[in-house]
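Hi support team,

I've been running sequence recovery on a batch of backbones for a student project. Most finish fine, but this one hangs at about 90% for roughly twenty minutes before it completes. I'm not sure whether the input is malformed or the queue is just slow. I've pasted the structure tokens below so you can try to reproduce it. Let me know if you need the job ID as well.

Thanks,
M.K.
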């Protein structure tokens, strides 16, 4: 009984084995009547009547030749004839699911399965060819798009550079436009973007100017420089730090200027609020020292006279640049007519005190000086400055400074 069970189990394993695959262990010979092998291009190439080591992944067992003990099977990739050993041939012969056919019938079945495989792999090769063609066309289209984009980018780059060169030819990088297109639909003009200095109370209103002289731009701040006219034809630089408002950042005029001159505008990273304050102090100090050198005892910032009704009226303002405090200032003058005849001489005395860097003003709406009607010109002959310590300084004509 045990031997019978073992024999049946062994036969079952044998049947399972041949159902799964055939190799040197369970068959004498395995011939691929036709099989299709994929090449390195992805196409299936047909091979005929070649010996193989193994036949697996079987789809159909479509015929058996009991005389020759040959089993005919198909797989997804071929049509095969398998020569069985005697033991396995006995089991196949008993399998009613496998048609046992005559030679002529087997040849017909072989032709049918070969034709089916040929049709299948012809379709696969055609699909592969189409895939390659589509891929090539896609690559060519991508290359065409890339070339076209490169061409457009090149044209755009050239046009942009021409526009920037044209802009550079007409503008100075120091003069930064702070205007934008008017936001009112009825206006075709521009308006100035208001700015406020972070260092002083300087403000640029909407209508004051459309550009400012800029020394540098650092982060979100414009550092502007303004030349201030001072005394005795001297001037000094005044630095301002304007925070860049959003409206200006969006201005096409502003962005174009930055694009054209970014190398110059952003080349001074040391510019900041402290630097601007130091530059203001330095510039103002040099200016004051220059004016003091030209007018060490001070200067007239303004003066005026008149002879209405033949009575001389007079006014003046004086800036003391000397470290000593002025107690009195006597202004001596003469009045002449158009041919240089002296019509009147005299002096006016202003009383202090007037400390260094202070300006004092005096006015005589009426005086005891009368002058002839042809008087036309007044000029200073000398100025005597008396200081609080009693010392005096006489200013002759070439020493009198008038702004």
């Amino acid at each position: 009984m045990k031997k019978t069970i073992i024999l049946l189990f062994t036969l079952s394993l044998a049947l399972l084995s041949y159902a799964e695959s055939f190799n040197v262990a369970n068959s004498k010979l395995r011939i691929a009547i036709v099989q299709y092998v994929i090449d390195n291009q992805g196409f299936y190439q047909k091979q005929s009547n070649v010996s193989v080591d193994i036949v697996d992944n079987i789809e159909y067992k479509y015929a058996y030749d009991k005389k020759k003990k040959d089993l005919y099977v198909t797989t997804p990739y071929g049509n095969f004839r398998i020569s069985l050993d005697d033991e396995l041939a006995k089991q196949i012969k008993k399998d009613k699911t496998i048609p046992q056919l005559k030679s002529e019938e087997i040849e017909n079945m072989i032709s049918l399965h070969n034709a089916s495989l040929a049709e299948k792999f012809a379709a696969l090769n055609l699909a592969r060819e189409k895939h390659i063609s589509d891929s090539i066309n896609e690559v060519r289209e991508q290359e065409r798009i890339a070339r076209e984009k490169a061409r457009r980018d090149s044209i755009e780059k050239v046009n942009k550079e021409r526009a920037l060169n044209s802009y550079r030819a007409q503008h100075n990088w120091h003069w930064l436009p702070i205007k934008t297109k008017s936001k009112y639909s009825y206006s075709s003009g521009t308006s100035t973007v208001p700015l406020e200095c972070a260092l002083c109370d300087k403000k640029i209103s909407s209508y004051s100017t459309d550009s400012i002289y800029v020394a540098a731009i650092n982060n979100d701040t414009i550092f502007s420089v303004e030349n201030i006219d001072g005394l005795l034809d001297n001037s000094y630089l005044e630095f301002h730090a304007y925070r860049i408002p959003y409206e200006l950042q969006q201005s096409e005029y502003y962005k174009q200027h930055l694009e054209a001159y970014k190398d110059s505008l952003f080349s001074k990273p040391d510019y900041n609020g402290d630097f601007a304050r130091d530059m203001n102090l330095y510039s103002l100090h040099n200016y004051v020292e220059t004016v003091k050198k030209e007018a060490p005892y001070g200067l007239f910032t303004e003066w005026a006279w008149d002879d209405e009704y033949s009575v001389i009226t007079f006014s003046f303002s004086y800036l003391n640049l000397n470290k000593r405090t002025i107690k009195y200032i006597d202004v001596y003058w003469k009045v002449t007519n158009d041919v240089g005849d002296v019509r009147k001489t005299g002096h006016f005395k202003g009383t202090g005190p007037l400390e260094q860097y202070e300006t004092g003003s005096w006015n005589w709406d009426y005086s005891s000086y009368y002058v002839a009607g042809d008087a036309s010109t007044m000029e200073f002959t000398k100025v005597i400055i008396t200081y609080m310590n009693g010392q005096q300084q006489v200013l002759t004509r070439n020493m009198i400074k008038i702004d």
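--
Follow-up from support: It reproduced on our side and the slowdown came from queue contention, not your input. The chain is about 35% helix and 35% strand. No action needed from you.
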